[in-house]
Amino acid sequence: MKLLTYARESVLLGDAAADGLMAYAARLASLRLTDAVRLRVLTVGGSSAMAAFLLTPGVQLMTVTVESPYAEPDNEAEVATLRRRTADIVVAVVLEDQGRDAIFDDIEFAAATS
């Protein structure tokens, strides 16, 4: 279980959810992108809740591995979505870069004469 700190608040998440959120946030930040993610969390007192995280290039997240008497919140589907979104960003950037190259491949540049 991990304790995640976000905007001065801390919540408990399963390891996979916390790691997935961190990886996705890092990928978004590296490309200056923004997204919102909803995950099931536990408050420090053990109450379950649904949390929304706005991930921006300047967001500050921190996770700490902790022992907890509580069961991890079920975020299996959300973790799969985070992994897919993280992978999709890489694919989109590669395709975009290839698209730019393809545009220039079709242009014949004439030597300038002076």
What does this structure look like?
The chain is an alpha+beta fold and 114 residues long. It has one domain (2-105). The chain has helices at residues 15-30, 76-105; strands spanning 2-6, 9-13, 35-43, 48-55, 61-65. It has a five-stranded antiparallel beta sheet, with helices on one face. Helix 1 packs parallel to helix 2 (76-105).
Notable features of this structure?
single chain; 114 residues; alpha+beta; five-stranded antiparallel sheet; 2 helices; 5 strands; globular; disordered C terminus
Low-pLDDT windows of residues: 102-114
Q: Helix content range of the residues, please? A: 40-55%
Morphology call = globular
Question: Which radius of gyration do the C-alpha atoms yield?
Answer: 20 Å
Write out the strand line-up for the largest beta sheet, numbering strands in chain order: 4-3-2-1-5
Give a concise summary.
This protein has 114 residues and is of the alpha+beta class. Helices cover 40% and strands 28% of the residues. It has one domain (2-105).
Topology:
Layout: E1 2-6, E2 9-13, H1 15-30, E3 35-43, E4 48-55, E5 61-65, H2 76-105
Antiparallel strand pairs: 1-2, 1-5, 2-3, 3-4
Helix pairs in contact: 1-2
